Amino acid sequence: MTDVETLVRETLADREVLAPPVGGLAEAAIASARRRRLRRHTLGAVVACVVAGLLSTGLVAVARHALGRSPTVGWSTTSVPTGWQVVSSRGLQVAVPADWPVNADTGCARAPFSITRDPGTVLDCEVAPRRPGTEVTIQPALAYAERDDALKGRPTSTEQVSLAGAPAILFRGSYPDGRAALVLTVPGIDVQVAAIGPDPALLERVLQTTRVVEVDDVGCSRDLLSRPAWDRPRPGPAIRPGSPTSVSVCLYEGTVLGASTRLTGRQASAVVAAMSAARAGPVPDDPRSCVAGLSESSPMWLQLRYADGSEQDVRVRFSGCRARWMASPTGVSQVSVALLRATLVPLRTNLPFGSDLPRR
Amino acid sequence: MPETPESTAELDVAPVTDAPALPQLVDRVTDFDAFVAARGEALLRMATLLTGDPGRADELVRSALGRAYLRWTRLRRGDDPEAYIRRHVVRQHLLRLRLAPSRRMVVLSDRATTSTPERETTWALLARLPRRQRAVLVLRCSAEMSDEQIARTLGCRVRTVRVDAERALARLDEAVRP
Predict the structure, then answer these.
(1) B6, A32: Cβ pair inside 8 Å?
(2) How confident is the model at residue B178 (pLDDT cuts 50, 70, 90)?
(3) According to the model, what pLDDT value does residue B99 have?
(4) How many Å apart are CA A144 and CA A105, to the nearest integer?
(5) How many angstroms separate the CA of residue B13 from the nearest CA in chain A?
(6) Across A42-56, A205-219, B1-15, which has the greatest mean pLDDT?
(7) Contact A26 B141 (CB under 8 A)
(8) Pairing, β A92-97 against β A84-89
(9) B25 and A185 in contact by Cβ < 8 A?
């Protein structure tokens, strides 16, 4: 080994400390893979549409006759029944009856019916036995129902299905207490909707409303959009919300939509009031309350829609001890506890918040 | 502003398998997490030395891991998933591919280097080397790879690796010699 090679080795060893930490790398890589696969599926869907269009010109009859069999059978999806509510998270959207509470499961006092979406804190209850209610959960595809010990040794089945073009896996099982479990997993986005309850027909009806969406019914995109140029701290002017007819609230978990809702009426007015009362500029940083290693959360994205069809986007940064503001293309205001209350409470994320943010 | 799309340059990628069954998916995620926990640091280190830029290194490694994740089951059946990822990192760097900006919060290390003026000079000189010559030195002197392994990683002949190494060391020798 030459002297200069030794010097190179020492220099490189010396600079290894510049490497970024490995924490969060796997999650970021998986998110990158999901986006790549989603783009490929979208392209595949476009190609499929073109092919379908060509086939419909008359070739289909010839092809079917020649093949003597029908096209691939998919999971039959239905439109949202009247009186049902739509809940979306992580790119999956599912409908349940309107009177089912969202994220209301505390483990101990379970509602007869409930829909839970991640993020949501659900405490497990060691004392009271779990009531055999009906629960539907949208969650990362890591918490598979089939890993449930209570399902071990029970008859189960798994089949590949097509969810409006997206490959999915349908798992069916049954618990010893008679409840059925239906879990629809979409590996392309690593998300699943799990339905558990005593009435398999109801579970099937719920799961048949499942959709893979890039933008959900309230207008929130599954992937967090890139940070716009106007989302930066500046002294003002303050945001002027005007009089929107509705406010869509999109809360992201990392770079993926965790929860969303559309506020109207008094709930939208509460958001507007909190926004109007906020002071111009960002909340001053408070280094004393910084916790080492705690990063800012992903922003919340609000979409204000007006009667004339126009819209105003507002990004809200509220976590941590620095970089806290809400910004729109025309202004920057302090994010306040009042605004968080007006948005997070109806969102029912069960997210606790407490900091030195101004009250209004 | 829309995110910069990741390039789809022609690299030796294996075809993506169809949607895996549920148990395999669980195993894949768990196994992938374990792999990144075990080897992610070494990959980031190599990419940092390759690029001299921790942010760029993070993007390269994340992108390569993302590709690997899509075909993880197949890679695991093979011998060395790390070689596949390393190859992507190096070749994407050499091809100067544009990648999507990292969405991961990268906290730069505040650990001080134990540098000397001589090492500072060498580091600066390494930055001025042609990319492939620098890559050869990083893979040989830091990743401790053989010339054969480097050749497979770069997609060139062993002879080319040796010539690149000799030229790079000669250039550095000439520059640092008093």
Answers:
(1) yes
(2) low
(3) 46
(4) 18
(5) 14
(6) A205-219
(7) no
(8) antiparallel
(9) yes
What length is written for chain B? 178
Question: Are the beta carbons of B136 and B161 closer than 8 angstroms?
Answer: yes
Instruction: List, as ranges, residues 308-327 from A with C-beta within 8 Å of B.
Output: none
- Across the interface, of A5, A11, A36, the residue whose CB is closest to B169 is A5
Distance from CA of B26 to the nearest CA of A (A): 6
Residue A332's beta-bridge partner residues?
A327
Q: How far apart are the C-alpha atoms of B141 and B137, rounded to whole Å?
A: 6
Distance from CA of A33 to the nearest CA of B (A): 4
pLDDT at A70 over 70: no
CB pairs under 8 A between A and B: 178
CB nearest to A141's CB, from B25, B47, B138: B25
User: Distance between CA atoms of A26 and B6, rounded to whole angstroms?
Assistant: 18
Q: Do B6 and A36 touch (CB under 8 A)?
A: yes
Nearest C-alpha in A relative to B106:
A20
Q: What is the pLDDT of residues A137-156, one digit of tens each?
A: 888 776 455 556 677 777 77
C-alpha dihedral sign at A104, A108, A111, A115: positive
Largest Cα span, chain A: 79
Q: pTM value?
A: 0.54
Q: Pick the residue of A16, A147, A184, A186 with the most B CBs within 10 A to test the interface with B by mutation.
A: A16
Query: With the CA atoms of B112, B117, B123 and B129 taken in that order, what torsion angle do they form, in degrees rounded to the nearest 10?
Result: 170
Pick from B162, B32, B172, B145: nearest CA to B90 = B145
Number of H helices, E strands in chain A: 6, 15
As beta bridge partners, residue A162 has: A167
β A157-163/A300-305 pair status: unpaired
pLDDT(A277) > 90:
yes
pLDDT above 90: residue B47: yes
Q: How many Cα atoms sit within 13 Å of A135 on the Cβ side? A: 20
Higher per-residue pLDDT: B130 or A126: B130
Closest CA–CA distance from residue B168 to any residue of chain A (Å): 10
Q: Could you give the CA distance from residue A205 to residue A199 in angstroms, rounded to a whole number?
A: 10
Mean pLDDT of A86-90: 89
